[in-house]
Structure formats: structure tokens, C-alpha cells
UniProtKB/TrEMBL annotation:
The protein, known as: Ferredoxin--NADP+ reductase
Organism: Edaphobacillus lindanitolerans
Top-rank taxon, per record: Bacteria
GO MF annotation: an example: oxidoreductase activity
Chain ranges of the FAD-binding FR-type domain: 1-107
InterPro entries in UniProt: FAD-bd_FR_type, FNR_nucleotide-bd, Riboflavin_synthase-like_b-brl
């Protein structure tokens, strides 16, 4: 396993409690849209075993052509040891990244794509939308639906509706409205539904989508292949 140590080159305050850490791109470090990486803080590998409290699984919110590795995360007042340390890092400080992989690349099958997310989960989808803007081939259109009770919605510059580019976007501030809209979107029985958020959020979305007749193979989750059966039961019919 190759570990890349790299420096923070910019910290962007997206909202009062969400920050994007832009990291220098190490030579040879590659990724694609929908990728995640393991981000670790100084001292994580100082002992015989890795200190897992200093390691987090993070989505990459940028594309390679932006030439920085973007890590977008919410840091609340009461937070974990990892985020407490991260909050105090500044430009020039080093972090480690390793084990990078994409579970949710943009599928180009000539279908409509629906991006369903909660809060900062939108960071996973930012690269998919930018990739679509760069090349629309193989995607009919994209619609993003995000729920965030804070009302401080992320990336408004990217998630601005652009019907002329076959992209639409909606933000809602409560789960009831959100799931009603998910049901409406599920009227497209051939669409591809990408879902990012907590495990509970994933399971709730899957229940709604499956209840509306969406097949498991139409639902894309940011999970390893071995984890998918836990969420995507093959048949929920009675």
C-alpha cells in the first residue's frame, strides 16, 4: 500500500460548519469521479498498529484537472478526535492519503441519472456533475436532490440548475419533502439512482425506491461490492 504525504494548500469555508481542504496532488496520484480515499493525520502510523482514530474514509470532491485533492467535511462544535485535530490544521500542514477507489463512477448508459444526497454527501457528487459538464456523452440528463436541515446548501456554483446543459438541481430542508420528491423521481423506471449519506439514509432511500418499483441494479451506493448485499436485497416482494 502506497501512502502519499501531502500538504494542505487551501482551506475553504463552504458554510459555518463545512470546510473543504485542498491538498497538493502528489506525483503519480490518480483518481476518477466518485472516488473516496483514506485521509490520515500525523502520528497515525507511529505505533505497531495504525491508530484508527486518526484515519477517516473521505470522498474526493474535485476532479484531477483541478489539480488539487478536495476533501469536504462537516466539523461540528462537538466532534471526534480526528475532526478536532483537522479543525486546527492550517495551510502548509501535512496529511496522508492512501487506498483510493471509486464505487460510484458516472455510468454512461444513455439513461437519466438521479443524485440523491444528504448534507455534505453532496461532495461525492460534485465531481460527477463536473464530469458530465465536461462530457455529456452517454448520459441523458442529471437531476440532483439534496436534503439539509441547516439550509446552508453546498456548492451553489456547481449545483445551479442548468437546463440547457441537461442538468437540474433541487435543495430541500426536510426529510418529508425530500422523500416525496424521491417518489416522484422514481416514476422513471429506467433511471439510475445514486445515493450518498449515512447508512440509515441509504436504507431509507432504498426502501422508498424499491417500494416504487426501482430494481437493485439501478441503485448505486458508495459502498464496496462486498457490502452491497447488506443494503440491496435482491427481492423485497412478498
Amino acid at each position: 500500500m502506497q501512502i502519499y504525504w501531502t500538504k494542505i494548500n487551501q482551506i475553504i469555508e463552504e458554510t459555518p460548519d463545512v470546510k473543504t481542504y485542498l491538498l497538493d496532488r502528489p506525483e503519480g496520484f490518480e483518481w476518477e469521479e466518485g472516488s473516496h480515499t483514506h485521509m490520515a493525520l500525523e502520528g497515525f502510523n507511529a505505533g505497531e498498529k495504525p491508530n484508527r482514530s486518526l484515519i477517516r474514509h473521505m470522498s474526493i470532491s474535485t476532479l484531477p484537472h483541478e489539480n488539487s485533492i478536495g476533501i469536504t467535511t462537516r466539523i461540528r462544535e462537538q466532534c471526534s478526535e480526528f475532526k478536532s485535530i483537522l479543525r486546527n490544521l492550517t495551510v502548509g500542514d501535512e496529511v496522508a492519503i492512501f487506498k483510493t477507489h471509486s464505487n460510484v463512477p458516472l455510468k454512461r448508459e444513455g439513461k437519466n441519472v438521479y443524485l440523491l444526497s444528504s448534507g455534505v454527501g453532496l461532495a461525492t457528487f460534485r465531481p460527477l456533475v463536473l464530469d458530465f459538464f465536461n462530457r455529456e456523452e452517454g448520459v441523458n440528463r442529471i437531476h440532483s436532490l439534496n436534503v439539509d436541515s441547516s439550509n446552508a446548501f453546498l456548492f451553489p456554483d456547481v449545483f445551479e440548475p442548468a437546463p440547457d446543459r441537461k442538468f437540474t438541481s433541487r435543495f430541500v430542508d426536510n426529510r418529508n419533502d425530500y422523500y416525496e420528491e424521491v417518489k416522484d423521481l422514481a416514476a422513471d423506471k429506467e433511471g439510475l439512482f445514486y445515493v450518498v449519506g449515512s447508512d440509515e439514509f441509504l436504507k431509507q432511500n432504498i426502501e422508498v425506491l424499491r417500494g416504487e418499483g426501482i430494481r437493485p441494479d439501478q441503485i448505486m451506493l458508495d459502498k464496496r461490492e462486498g457490502q452491497l448485499p447488506e443494503f440491496l436485497q435482491v427481492d423485497l416482494t412478498v
